[in-house]
Amino acid sequence: MSQGMKSRRFIDEGWFHDFGQGMSLTGGRCPACGQTYFPTKPVCPSCFNAEQQKIPLSGKGTLHTFARSHMGPSGIPTPFTIGFIDLREGIKLFSLLTQCEPWDKVLAVGMEMEMVIEPIRQDEEGNEIVGYKFRPSRGKSS
Amino acid sequence: MRAVAIAGIGGMRFGTYGDRSLRVLGEEACIKAIRDAGMTPRDIQQAYVGNLAQWEWGQGLLIGHYVLREIGLTKIPITRVENGCATGSNAFHEAWYRVATGGCDIALAFGVEQMTVASSEKILNVFTGRQHAERSGDMGNSAPGLFGLLARRHMEEFGTTREQMAMVAVKNRHYGSLNPEAQLTQAVTVEEVLKDRMICDPLTLPQCCPRGDGAAAVVLVAGKIAKKYTSTPVSVAASVQVSGTYPDTGSYTCFDTDVRAAAAAYRMAGLGPEDIDLAEVHDCFSVAEIVHYEDLGFCRKGEGGRFIEEGHSGPGGKIPVNTSGGLLSKGHVIGATGVSQIIELVRQLRRQAGRRQVEGARVALQHNGGGFIHTDTASCFIHILRK
Complex ipTM, two decimals? Predict the structure, then answer.
């Protein structure tokens, strides 16, 4: 094993921000028409308004669908589990799913899910690329 | 718009041709199509080529010029187009538009791709490029991933079964076994499909199209002069292109692009799904074909699983689908795929489809979806052809 210093970095620096309660996923909101999206956009795709607000996304939603992938990009060991999450904010997110084994017993369409910020893959040098994943919700309801 | 007809077709068996250049593959298809139309290259007034990428090197610079120069077709406007997996259909659509709007009387559309020269990893990287805002390729998504997710939601919402999805592969491989131009020519059973290697649960290997190398070409002519070149002209009754909306809301069981393109195509042709005798649709994965039945109006939403199970899309059914064997048998040779779908339908309408001939076929629909962004296909083309 190489003992070189391995770094950790976000998959995209613009995706995460500490709004005062720890890191959350950063969405965009248009103050003119109220549209919310992820990731942030250069202008509002609904009304072309230039001024955009950055807002924390809840990281909570329901499982729209899931699948078990036996192939994928290098740096993510197979098999792994993927899904679309319907966020409370009305955004659909593709995500790796975690802490859900055995996946075919644990997962069900419609179940409550919550976001965790974790390494999602390693790059060619072994550095950890950190992004978001979703797991079955543990909280009561918040 | 003027009437446009297809006067010549040139196909080839898709396969592994790493020992031949992209240019040589293109030459073969173009020569066949021009000969089939009873023409010489001097007759062609404009050409469009579909080529997604030169996988070993990157972008396919000037591939149309390289190919056509070798067969003596120079001077005329030659344009390469790219639109994801619907690249070949885009070339056809542009050629149709030029003729339909009077820009020229005779146009060549061809597609060519050579994918076996690149690794799966490289292809995955090209498809899940970093331009994608959500970077879902970096996050673990892939084409099988997207369609595995589609399959699971369709199963959950409509009760579609693994067996029904497997039946799509069985039907298309049966048709492929009757098509000398298919890459996979061995028929399979439902049991074999379900027992095969899992790619993205619930989809096994035979439910995922292979890639390959090859080319396909057609010659389009103004309807008024079609009879000069062919005794069996096939007319283009509709040619439609739409792009995706990438919705965040709604159920991931429907391609909005299909629905909008189909509505526009039926309107343009003055026909409805009940008039379609056979179709070639984009069966990149088994479940995709089931969803296309629904979104193209062959059956109601949610009933695609029953549509295949009851045999409506198979031999002797209401609308035989993918009689060429589809992408699942031919392989998805991206730039060539859309044009090769058109070629199959022309053969059927000319009664040249041999053992897979659909009796009495008069109206045929071609559907080709291109690329995937977030929750939607990026481009979608539908053509309706009639005898």
Answer: 0.95
